[in-house]
Specification:
heterodimer; A: about 575 residues; mainly alpha; two-stranded parallel ribbon; 5 strands; globular; B: alpha+beta; five-stranded antiparallel β-sheet; 20 strands; about 20% helix
Chain lengths: ~575, ~375
């Protein structure tokens, strides 16, 4: 006989049975440790900057300092210059990027992949490296200037003041626009266009009425990103010695007037506001554009109309011209690193290996410092990022979303702000048992780099862990592996590639980090190569050594990028922000 | 069959669940579940998705802690014992093979964790692979195997550690229909051979009926009925179980009286002139008294098409109009509209070219008193 179970009047659980909670104590402990780390190294420095900028003489909260910012003509000029530079960089970047994006996304021709690859190169190279050679290429006696003069009798010096910065940044940052627009163009469903054609739109009208509206959100996001990058970049103004901009002013106030000078912090807050506004606007635009990439069914494979003959040559020629201009600074750096005398000629008149001897033999500490800081920052960042990603996806602990939110904050923080915040908090903190300030040890670079690039590593870890289904871990647990062993034998081997790629990203971006570095450097012996490039570039005799260090930076970044792409197992750039 | 292997030296455990509760936020996944699963049983949790069957399995595995209640293996409480100390084998719905390990390493994993000597690991992995018919494929990666082969690797990985308990979470749902039937047969053979206590989770009633020694039907976190496949199918405890296992027609009625082994039930609809009467077996429907309101449950396959006139003496007749007739080869799946409204679903056997079977024609159906099930009426969920 079967046992029909009475279903009315559910039996109460017997008294004495403990109601268990679903919070995992191990996870909770890990979350606390991470929260502590992020609290000290992310929240505290930012809060310190905000507090100084928003605290009045009486100790209460005030906006008076912020208002006073707008009464100082130098600050107004700096703000104007920064916004102007950002705006022009977007305009010039658009002019460079749009034709390139259109040709690459719509047509297939010989050399297309080469164009795509080369156009991402400026992206991974720090702008100030290109800036080293910019004067030599575009300056008063630069190669291009001389060429123009000899060929057409024109004499223009485009490197004067702000224009030089705009040129350097535009050449450097236009790939942000290129990549987002190319991706969007490739995502536009051809059937939408075909629909437009059937409705009678073709040629220019089709582009204007169907394609542009679909691509506009991506373009806007890319342009905003370019704007933020340009405003945040203080390396280029420093190398080109034009300091009436927000970033350099913040740095100068803090380092020359003093750490207690309110104005420096106020400028930082202004920069953060600009940066956050752009990031928020960009996210908003991207979140609204769902319709643009919506597609069902088979999509036309990437590429498009294939071009042959003279059309192919024109397409390749267009791309080559744009890319050629944008890669000129970096070519210039390489040439410059071998030049002994380069004055009033197209190319150097005599060559030397002496600059490399200088940086490898006489003063190798800059490269060694860079390697030490970057490797340490990468290792630390990878551990923190992997732990956060793990908790977020697998953790049984409340409030884990907070960890993610804090760890992603630095993405909207200019480097100089992180540097200033670190100085504020850690300068007065001494190592236990000594008189040494924490801010004067090399550990400060490691921590600052780690914090600054944590979002990259976190995203990489997220993506890697996302591919490991939780049942793989469950299977390991059931098969007899305690949690830590299951992680080591199953999860770790599966995510190590992606997580390492995140580490490599930290490494390469830390190796060429400038704005945080210049704020934190207290002694030249501790300087990594980015600061050394600046120091060398300030004396005419040191330019060659600066260029040689620049070449080292280019090599590190190129190798790292290649490695990161190999490790993350994708054929595309693993990071774009 | 394969030669005796160490794997066959399995000591099955008895599993007891006491008042298990589990909630996810506001949703009650499992409510006050108590039952005992005997040694060597093939026990199935059956129910629609969201009924709590997988939650129960994960609690038995130790992958999920119950909010309240106890789990005992052989009388020993294991509620808080982590999965790696429970000595169980488990096959996941998506197989959960580790993609970075070869088939051999996947199967050997649990033995390595148990610190079994290397030489013994080799022979035991080979035994397990032979048992599931995968000898010689140890060097392959899971991605190089078919779905059926991956399933076998998952099974080999579960049994190689000589677990006292084998947990199967919808293991056949990712296979195509033919392979599913084949694996089902192999699974039941393997289980008999090993004698291992097996807990199986599925929403497929055919699998449950064919494989199980006993079935626990679950619905919305509650145990609706517990019994052998024959018991739950032939004597469902309520409308839900009857409907979920095989499907059924439900008619409202009242018990009018009793004569011998027959309970006479007056239906609210369905007679030729208004209400009809059905006779039900009293021994198969114990505990019903005259005057009681009942829900009459008739399986579609229990309905038989009769020729008019020839069955004038028969009482259990239902007349109606054929509204739908779908020819399925072995049966005719049909819907018959009763005079007072309401639709009966019937599976009519041997439908070979019967002239009367045309949509729109009046038909008469008969049901044997033994096939009339009486259930307590309940508000349909």
């Amino acid at each position: 006989m079967s046992i029909p179970v009475p279903q009315q009047a559910p039996v109460r659980a017997p008294v004495g049975i403990r109601w268990r909670t679903s919070v995992d104590p191990g996870h909770a402990a890990l979350a606390l440790v991470l929260l502590l780390i992020l609290g000290v190294f992310v929240v505290w420095p930012i809060a310190a900057v905000l507090r100084v900028a928003l605290t009045g003489a009486d100790g209460g909260m005030t906006l008076a300092h912020l208002f006073r910012f707008f009464e100082n003509p130098l600050y107004i000029e700096s703000l104007t210059n920064s916004l102007l530079a950002g705006g022009w960089v977007v305009v010039i970047g658009t002019v460079l990027a749009l034709p390139l994006a259109f040709v690459v996304a719509r047509y297939d021709f010989r050399g297309r992949m080469l164009v795509v690859t080369l156009s991402t190169l400026p992206l991974v190279l720090p702008p100030f490296v290109g800036a080293i050679a910019l004067t030599q290429v575009f300056g008063r006696a630069g190669t291009i200037t001389l060429l123009l003069q000899d060929l057409f009798g024109l004499h223009v010096n485009i490197m004067e003041g702000l224009r030089g910065i705009i040129l350097a940044q535009a050449l450097h940052f236009f790939p942000f626009i290129f990549l987002t627009v190319t991706a969007a163009l490739m995502n536009v469903d051809r059937s939408l266009e075909e629909m437009g054609q059937m409705m009678g739109a073709h040629g220019w009208r089709l582009l204007r009425r169907v394609v542009f509206p679909l691509v506009l959100p991506s373009y806007a996001a890319g342009a905003l990103l370019t704007f933020v990058k340009a405003v945040d970049d203080i390396g280029t103004p420093f190398i080109l010695n034009f300091k009436n901009m927000l970033g350099p002013q913040a740095y100068l106030r803090i380092t020359t007037v003093g750490r207690d000078d309110v104005d420096g912090y106020v400028i930082c807050v202004i920069m953060v506001i600009i940066s956050i506004a752009c990031v928020v606007a960009s996210n908003w635009i991207v979140s609204r554009r769902e319709y643009a990439t919506l597609q069902t069914g088979a999509r036309q494979p990437e590429g498009g109309k294939s071009l042959a003959g003279w059309r192919s040559s024109v397409a390749l020629g267009t791309c080559a011209a744009i890319l050629g201009i944008s890669l000129l600074p970096h070519l210039g750096v390489i040439v410059m690193s071998f030049s002994r005398v380069w004055s009033l000629t197209y190319l150097p008149s005599t060559y030397t290996l002496g600059h490399y001897a200088e940086i490898f033999l006489r003063a190798p500490r800059f490269i060694l410092n860079t390697l030490t800081y970057s490797v340490a920052a990468a290792l630390l960042g990878v551990v923190v990022a992997a732990a956060i990603a793990y908790l977020l996806q697998r953790g049984r602990v409340p409030g884990k979303g907070l960890l993610d939110a804090i760890a992603m904050m630095p993405i909207a923080l200019p480097g100089v702000v992180i540097g200033v915040g670190f100085l504020r908090v850690f300068y007065t903190m001494t190592l236990p048992g000594t008189e040494t300030s924490l801010a004067s040890t090399w550990a400060i670079f490691v921590l600052a780099y780690m914090v600054r690039r944590l979002p990259y590593a976190l995203r990489a870890s997220h993506a890697a862990l996302h591919q490991v289904h939780s049942s793989l871990e469950d299977a390991a647990a059931v098969a007899g592996a305690p949690r830590v062993r299951a992680f080591r034998r199953v999860v770790l081997p599966l995510i190590i590639g992606g997580v390492t790629a995140g580490g490599v990203l930290i490494f390469i971006t830390a190796a060429v980090e400038f704005s945080t570095t210049i704020t934190l450097v207290s002694r030249i012996e501790q300087s990594p190569l980015s600061y050394a490039i600046y120091i060398y570039s300030q004396s005419p005799l040191g330019r060659g050594a600066a260029a040689a260090l620049g070449v080292v930076a280019i090599v590190i970044v190129a190798l790292g990028t290649y490695l990161a792409n190999r490790l993350s197992g994708r054929g595309r750039m693993a990071f774009t922000l | 069959m394969a030669a005796p292997t160490p794997i066959t030296r399995i000591r099955p455990v008895e599993v007891e669940l006491r008042h298990l509760h589990r909630r996810f936020h506001d949703m009650v996944a499992v409510h006050d579940l108590s039952l005992t699963i005997g040694r060597g049983e093939f026990f199935t949790f059956l129910g629609p998705s969201g009924c709590g069957k997988t939650t129960t399995l994960r609690m038995i595995a130790g992958l999920l802690l119950p909010d309240a209640g106890e789990i005992l293996f052989d009388g020993r409480p294991v509620t808080a014992t982590p999965p790696w100390h429970r000595n169980i084998g488990m096959v996941f719905q998506n197989y959960a093979l580790w993609p970075h390990m070869t088939v051999y390493d996947n199967v050997a994993f649990g033995l390595v964790e148990r610190k079994v000597a290397r030489a013994e690991i080799g022979s035991r992995v080979e035994d397990a692979l032979r048992l599931v018919g995968l000898e010689g494929l140890g060097h392959r990666l899971p991605s190089q195997l078919s779905g059926g082969q991956q399933q076998r690797v998952a099974l080999a990985r579960a049994i190689v550690v000589q677990p006292g308990l084998l947990l199967l979470d919808e293991p056949l749902s990712n296979l195509d229909a033919r392979l599913r039937v084949q694996m089902r047969n192999e699974l039941v053979k393997l289980q008999r051979q090993l004698g291992i206590t097996t807990i199986y989770v599925t929403h497929d009633q055919d699998e449950a009926l064919m494989l199980s020694t006993r079935i626990a039907v679950m619905h919305r976190g509650r145990l609706m009925q517990l019994g052998t496949p024959a018991e739950v199918y032939e004597r469902p405890a309520d409308i839900f179980v009857a409907d979920f296992l095989g499907g059924a027609n439900f008619l409202q009625g009242t018990v009018r009286g009793r004569s011998g082994d027959r309970l006479v039930v007056a239906l609210e609809t369905g007679g030729a002139n208004g209400a009809a009467q059905l006779h039900a077996s009293a021994s198969r429907n114990p505990g019903f008294a005259p005057g009681e309101s009942v829900t009459v449950c008739v399986r579609p396959e229990a309905l038989e098409l009769v020729h008019d006139g020839r069955a004038a003496d028969d009482v259990n007749l239902l007349r109606g109009t054929l509204r739908l007739a779908n020819y399925l080869g072995s049966v005719l799946a049909s819907e018959i509209e009763l005079p007072g409204g309401g639709i009966l679903r019937a599976q009519i056997a041997h439908p070979r070219g019967d002239a009367r079977i045309a949509e729109g024609n009046p038909v008469t159906l008969r049901v044997a008193p033994d096939d009339v099930l009486l259930l307590r009426p309940q508000t349909p969920s």
